[in-house]
Amino acid sequence: LGIIPVYMISDNVGIELLAATPFEHSIEVDGTGGALAGATADAGKTKHLPPTLSVQWYPRGGQDGWQPYFGIGLNYTVFFDEDTDSELINTLDALTGPELVIDDADLDLDDSFGLAAQAGVDIPFSDRWAVNIGIWYLDIDTEAEITAKSGGSDAAKVKFDVDIDPWVYNIGIAYKF
């Protein structure tokens, strides 16, 4: 659920802000070497808000009828509610061997900036109302830190890159002021 205001600078150029309720994503760790080579483990999940500011180009300008548009912009993503998965905790425990028992872990993701691209169309059904169909690609790359815990104390910290890079789809109603 979201609100996506657009301010038209001219008939062909608009400025848009994508603002929505939080998205949730699962995170997987791909093993690249050592004991996890070739393996994939569920690391956890996170919620995030990726407000995105875009410049849009409307090739049909102020003409009557349907209005396709294309945009490019920048998003800033805020992460929260990061949770680790039991599969990750079990994998970390197996990697540390019998001398150190990993019984919990914390996951923390850094906020990020990234590029965004979009395409869409407004299909009018009256002078001021239209159906809007849009799609965005958001480049959301961040760094995660997992703090493994043993008996309630920090046992080890691991950092890794996270690429979420979602496609966001919207079908909504547009109103022209």
Walk me through what this model shows.
A hairpin with a 4-residue loop joins strand 2 and strand 3. Helix content is 6%, strand content 64%. The strands form 2 sheets. Strands 1, 2, 3, 4, 5, 6, 7, 9, 10 and 13 form a 10-stranded antiparallel sheet that branches. The chain has a 3-stranded antiparallel sheet with strand order 8-11-12, covered by helices on one side. The protein has 1 helix and 13 strands. The two termini are 21 Å apart. The protein has one helix spanning 86-96; strands at 2-3, 6-8, 13-20, 23-30, 40-49, 52-57, 67-84, 104-109, 112-124, 129-138, 141-150, 153-163, 167-175. With 177 residues, the protein is mainly beta. The model has no long low-confidence stretch (mean pLDDT 90).
Q: Which structural class should the secondary elements be placed in?
A: mainly beta
Beta-strand content estimate: over 45%
Question: Distance between the terminal alpha carbons, to the nearest Å?
Answer: 21 Å
Unreliable residue stretches: none
Outline = elongated
Strand tally: 13
Q: Roughly what is the average pLDDT, rounded to an integer?
A: 90
Percent helix, as a range, is: under 10%
Q: How many helices does DSSP assign? A: 1
User: Topology as H/E string?
Assistant: EEEEEEEHEEEEEE
- State the major sheet: 10 strands, antiparallel
